[in-house]
């Protein structure tokens, strides 16, 4: 039985990569300037326009993917006799994973022999994207459905996310960080460094003085935790901070002989909560 891997737009994969590998996408939605948009990886609303609007005070909102949207996508491939693997945005950051499980049950009522695997990646942005990248590579090299599922399950908690934000007000406003956790303001140019824990939650880890120091700290955390960098593709995502992304990429290349670095913008759904100026790095290490 042929296998199809479905991703969602919170993986923040580059549009050209998704198009080249013909990856089916679940499109998260966001409300921006009074209209609802499907996240289409920057094709309709450019990343620059979106983040500039946020800098000017626009406060976009997001909503989880409903069960019917998932059911429609799953049915498309199940009706073609294909096995489905869906790699989902962290359940700690969205209720969408639970809706995907509901959708799977809906499809199984109609197609009792349907083969649908829904994986809570406990990842976000290009951390989720890298899991998709490796899974697609395995599929294209002829790996079985079981081999792909096992690899993802064994490695998802080894996918490290380290990031810094310009202002925690966005995470706090979106409910992705509690008021008590959002302990850092913009006073004295103090910048937070956060990561994603074993449950897929955003956790503040330390505070440093100044933007450049926060960026260097991300790479220091990579030095502490990365395993076999020469065998890895690593990733950087950013909220309209291309120069900083290139700066961090340069630091990574100066310290590690990685196979490649994927750099892409953080899409509007995650970006609505993290804000402009966010910068994140992703790599495989020991378990979180």
Automatic annotation (TrEMBL):
One Pfam entry name: DegV
GO terms, molecular function: lipid binding
Keywords of this entry: Lipid-binding
Domain of life the protein comes from: Bacteria
PROSITE patterns: DEGV
SUPFAM superfamilies for the chain: DAK1/DegV-like
Leader sequence segment: none
Matches recorded under InterPro entries: DegV, DegV_C, DegV_domain_contain
Job of this protein: May bind long-chain fatty acids, such as palmitate, and may play a role in lipid transport or fatty acid metabolism.
Protein name: EDD domain protein, DegV family
Organism from which the protein derives: Caldicoprobacter faecalis
Record lineage: Bacteria, Bacillati, Bacillota, Clostridia, Caldicoprobacterales
